[in-house]
């Protein structure tokens, strides 16, 4: 009996190790990817002196290499983000003292404009690695990292906090060590949310990859080899052909990323889904299909699996112990003192940081300049609000139409996914060209630039909302013959409201970030500057005026936070309470 | 010969904190011994603290007083030798059947080869062969609980704790799994020496256990200790079996009789049972149909309605307090008012219900009084929650207020607007 069991079980894993045709294809793919990555990494540590111009060639043959360098930065940043997520997410979920400071901090950091990080840190990183390109590289990677990491930490933390009680108790009863518990129970449980957030972050960070490579600081422009620098140089030379080339290259890169990275990971993450149903349609991926058809890869993956298996089941850390309400008085004493010390230190650090920041800013910036900066913030806020309204008017009807039409939905979804990942700043030159040619008002026409990247979030969420409306409700509206206007007002709009709000919040966040690159644009020798907080920060960065950069970023943070707390949060809460269907 | 004592629970006490200085006593002075070779059923209503006691024995929760020992060693954390099966199965969805079963052995550091052998044996014993590589989501509830059982049995536990293991399954599947478990139990040289089964299903307890420990609510403590000496396999239709079931009903409702006989005036802190108006009404209609104004046995009623005690007792408790029914010796009958209610039409019913609600439920009376004193007759529900939290935990306060709000809305003695969270006397336009 037992023997036959073993047979069945073995059948699943060891089909035989002789390679087949698919092995060959997969091996080629793997070798290619590995070689490219290794080469890209070796280029990073090139010698470099500040002020030394980095030659960026506009010839097409260099484009694949530049694209590769950009992808490298993205991947390194993602790896960093993952590590930070595991460490800080777990820390916040397990220690309530850490939680109290970490979670609000992440929440605030989320609203700091990503490109602000770049402006502030680039000088520091250059000083850290003198005479090497590693400094600017690190600054760029750090900025990309800060575009990715916050929602990952929050998502991971929330997953750990919502680990079902029975699963946690089962793990305790099995006496898993804390290391085993983390890797065998907690991380797998968080996996769907983690992969989802990773994918969101990756999509959003293409924009910043492009924006971070051409850094203007201290009246100098550092051009890191990459697709972002390529387009910056193309803009400088007003080279239309090069712009088209870079757009095409980026499309190819994102297509490849979608096929080789996004889909396989989403497919793989399916098995970690907690709600135990079979019916859901699974996402297919040809890469996974290919790899699972290859014998050698199946075998190799089994070996890698068993290696990780051994690593992840090491018995580090103590198993769970039930806590008593009353601990021993000595322990309690020490605990109180330690907690007190921890909060006092935090308080001192925070106060010191605020004082330092104020002194740093206001030693050089006269206090009455603050009013002007606040006014600039109003301009940018108006742009952001206009853009949300315009995007909603355009995309809500279209999104509803797509969502209702399952045939269209099948085609539209992958396309929109790619469009959402596509860095909008590559399209900027095209729009700017029009602005210049038709002599349009710069104050108004930079708004579409900010809209370019942000609109997809609204469309995406409206589609998701519409397609999740239960069939029965559609039947009801048909049955009662509910007509057009009533149908929108009483049925569709309320039903998609929670989704729409989520989309609008994300779009607004994206727009604030985009304002730093969108409010100052150029084409050849012409530079167009509109009035706004983004332009203020961008100009100060170019001049290397650090106190004013800090002031601009602080003000922008304030605006984003105020908007979140006073507008978006209440709307979101109302949407969840009143309009969510379940 | 005296049987060996495996687990000894003495004077265990457990309180849950409620708010700042309130606490709820869930277990009070509980004593229990588990001996070698026994299946013991811990029977009680939900909220009687039986699951808490199980978790204290498992080492998952610490007691506030008293002691639990396993083979003369104090239990303060999960120990080797005690395994547990969960109501919700608690399988890791990302591991296949084989990996789920192996997980506990891995934690113990069992070498890889032996681990596989033991897991396969456990899977075989519990009838899961062929499903080794299946993921939990592919399995039915019954098969999932088999995995839960295999995971517990593979570590060769001395004591097996089961927390309502069959209550999430349909009737037939539960029956099937119970029998299979009994078969495993009756095998020779089994490693497991004792099973403690928590349940609220009286028939399940009589079917499986050698000894039934009946638990009382508020606070939880041992009410009665019954030995079951029926030969196995037991027949659920046999007269001795039915007698035992009726006896247990009498014991469990006997307490209720005492509670309603003393008729101590209830206060605001009375924990209203979670009973829906539609269920209360339906129950009274059924009583009228089945028995008129004669008495009917609760065990018979529970079988007819397919209600177990957790469904049934909240209804009988509320109806007793509101003087719609009377209970005696495990039987129940409608009062005059109850009969009148069951025969009335919709509007009349509402009036009768309103009268009894205001007459016998102090909280309803209190809410009505507060509302009528206010100028605009609108008061936030937070106000009443604060009042309730003097007596109850936050969670219970919210539940109790939700229940009384539903009753009050049905009886039209007050209204509630969820968008601003205010209770009022006005009727919606």
What does this structure look like?
The complex is a heterodimer of chains A (582) and B (429). With 582 residues, chain A is an all-alpha fold. Chain A is built from 22 helices and four strands. Chain A folds into three domains: 284 residues, MetI-like fold; 41 residues; 215 residues, MetI-like fold (Orthogonal Bundle), CATH 1.10.3720. A two-stranded antiparallel sheet of chain A has the order 1-2. In chain A, strands 3-4 form a two-stranded antiparallel ribbon. In chain A, helix 13 crosses helix 22 and helix 14 runs parallel beside helix 22. The two termini of chain A are 47 Å apart. Chain B has 429 residues and is an alpha/beta fold. Helices cover 45% and strands 21% of the residues of chain B. In chain B, helix 2 crosses helix 3 and helix 2 packs parallel to helix 4. In chain B, strands 6-7-8-3-9-10 form a six-stranded mixed β-sheet, with helices on both faces. In chain B, strands 2-1-4-5 form a four-stranded antiparallel β-sheet, with helices on one face. Chain B has a three-stranded antiparallel β-sheet with strand order 11-13-12. The radius of gyration of chain B is 24 Å and the shape is globular. The N and C termini of chain B lie far apart (76 Å). Classes of the chains: A mainly alpha (582), B alpha/beta (429).
């Amino acid at each position: 009996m037992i023997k036959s069991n073993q047979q069945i079980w073995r059948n699943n894993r060891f089909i035989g190790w002789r390679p087949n045709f698919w092995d060959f294809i997969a091996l080629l793919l793997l070798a290619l990817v590995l070689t490219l990555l290794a080469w890209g990494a070796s280029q990073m540590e090139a010698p470099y002196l500040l002020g030394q111009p980095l030659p960026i060639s506009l010839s097409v043959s260099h484009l694949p290499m530049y694209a590769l360098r950009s992808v490298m930065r993205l991947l390194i940043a993602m790896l960093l983000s993952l590590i930070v997520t595991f460490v800080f997410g777990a820390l916040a979920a397990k220690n309530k003292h850490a939680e109290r400071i970490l979670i609000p901090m992440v929440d605030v950091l989320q609203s700091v404009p990503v490109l602000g990080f770049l402006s502030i840190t680039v000088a520091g990183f250059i000083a850290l690695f003198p005479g090497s390109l590693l400094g600017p590289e690190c600054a760029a990677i750090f900025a990309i990292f800060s575009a990715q990491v916050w929602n990952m930490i929050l998502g991971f933390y929330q997953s750990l906090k919502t680990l079902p009680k029975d699963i946690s108790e089962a793990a305790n009863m099995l006496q898993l060590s804390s290391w085993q518990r983390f890797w065998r129970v907690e991380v797998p449980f968080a996996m769907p949310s983690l992969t989802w957030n990773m994918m969101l972050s990756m999509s959003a960070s293409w924009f910043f990859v492009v924006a971070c490579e051409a850094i203007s600081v201290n009246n100098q422009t550092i051009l890191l080899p990459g697709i972002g620098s390529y387009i910056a140089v193309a803009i400088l030379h007003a080279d239309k052909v090069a712009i088209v080339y870079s757009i095409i290259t980026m499309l190819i890169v994102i297509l490849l990323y979608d096929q080789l990275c996004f889909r396989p990971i989403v497919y793989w993450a399916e098995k970690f889904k907690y709600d135990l149903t079979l019916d859901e349609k699974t996402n297919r991926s040809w890469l996974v299909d290919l790899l699972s058809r290859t014998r050698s890869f199946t075998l190799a993956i089994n070996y890698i699996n068993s290696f990780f298996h051994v690593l992840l089941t090491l018995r580090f850390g103590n198993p769970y112990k039930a806590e008593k309400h009353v601990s021993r008085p000595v322990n309690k004493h020490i605990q109180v003192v330690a907690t007190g010390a921890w909060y006092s230190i935090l308080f001192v650090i925070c106060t010191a940081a605020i004082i330092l920041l104020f002194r740093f800013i206001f030693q050089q910036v006269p206090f009455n300049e603050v009013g002007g900066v606040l006014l600039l913030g109003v301009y940018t806020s108006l742009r952001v609000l206009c853009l949300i309204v315009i995007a909603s008017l355009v995309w809500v009807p279209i999104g509803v139409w797509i969502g209702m039409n399952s045939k269209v939905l099948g085609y539209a979804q992958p396309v929109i996914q790619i469009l959402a990942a596509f860095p909008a700043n590559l399209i900027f030159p095209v729009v700017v060209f029009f602005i210049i040619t038709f002599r349009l008002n710069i104050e108004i026409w930079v708004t579409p630039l900010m809209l370019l990247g942000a609109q997809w979030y609204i469309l995406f969420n409206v589609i998701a909302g519409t397609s999740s409306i239960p069939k029965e409700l559609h039947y009801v509206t048909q049955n009662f013959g509910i007509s057009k206007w009533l149908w929108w007002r009483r049925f569709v709009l309320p039903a998609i409201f929670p989704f729409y709000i989520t989309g609008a919040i994300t779009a607004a966040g994206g727009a604030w970030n985009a304002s730093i690159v969108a409010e100052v644009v150029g084409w050849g020798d012409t530079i167009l500057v509109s009035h706004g907080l983004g332009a203020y920060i961008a100009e100060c960065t170019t001049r290397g005026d650090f106190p004013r950069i800090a002031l601009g970023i602080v003000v922008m943070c304030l605006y984003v936070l105020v908007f979140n707390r006073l507008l978006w949060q209440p709307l979101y809460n109302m949407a969840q309470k009143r309009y969510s269907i379940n | 010969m005296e049987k060996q004592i495996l687990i000894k629970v003495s004077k265990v006490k457990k309180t849950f904190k409620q708010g700042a200085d309130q606490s709820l006593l869930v277990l009070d002075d509980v004593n229990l011994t588990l001996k070698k070779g026994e299946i013991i059923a811990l029977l009680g209503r939900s909220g009687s603290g039986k699951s808490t006691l199980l978790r204290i024995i498992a080492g998952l929760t610490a007691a506030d007083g008293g002691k639990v020992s396993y083979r003369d060693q104090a239990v303060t954390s999960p120990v080797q030798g005690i395994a547990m099966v969960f109501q919700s199965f608690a399988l890791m969805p990302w591991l296949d059947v084989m990996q789920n079963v192996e997980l506990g052995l891995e934690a113990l550091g069992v070498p890889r080869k032996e681990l596989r052998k033991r897991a396969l044996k456990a899977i075989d014993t519990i009838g899961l062969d062929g499903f080794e590589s299946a993921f939990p989501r592919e399995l039915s509830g019954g098969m999932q609980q088999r995995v839960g059982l295999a995971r517990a049995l593979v570590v060769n536990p001395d004591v097996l704790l089961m927390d309502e293991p069959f209550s999430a399954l349909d009737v037939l599947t539960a029956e099937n799994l119970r029998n299979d478990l009994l078969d495993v139990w009756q095998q020779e040289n089994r490693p497991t020496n004792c099973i403690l089964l928590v349940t609220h299903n009286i028939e399940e307890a009589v079917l499986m256990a050698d000894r039934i420990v009946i638990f009382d609510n508020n606070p939880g403590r041992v009410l009665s200790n019954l030995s079951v000496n029926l030969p196995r396999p037991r027949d659920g239709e046999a007269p001795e079996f039915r007698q035992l079931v009726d006896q247990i009903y009498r014991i469990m409702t006997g307490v209720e009789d005492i509670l309603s006989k003393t008729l101590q005036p209830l206060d605001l802190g009375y924990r209203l049972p979670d009973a829906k108006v539609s269920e209360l009404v339906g129950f009274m209609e059924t009583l009228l149909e089945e028995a008129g104004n004669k008495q009917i046995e609760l065990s018979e009623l529970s079988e007819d309605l397919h209600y177990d005690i957790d469904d049934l007792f909240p209804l009988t408790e509320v109806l007793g307090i509101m003087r719609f029914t009377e209970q005696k010796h495990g039987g129940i009958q409608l009062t005059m008012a109850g009969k009148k209610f069951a025969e009335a039409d919709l509007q009349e019913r509402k009036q009768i219900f309103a009268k009894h609600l205001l007459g016998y439920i102090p909280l309803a009376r209190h809410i009505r009084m507060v509302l009528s004193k206010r100028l605009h007759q609108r008061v936030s529900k937070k106000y009443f929650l604060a009042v309730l939290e003097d007596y109850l935990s936050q969670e219970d306060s919210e539940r109790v207020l939700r229940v009384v709000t539903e009753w009050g809305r049905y009886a039209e003695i007050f209204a509630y607007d969820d968008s601003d969270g205010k209770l009022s006397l006005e009727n919606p336009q």
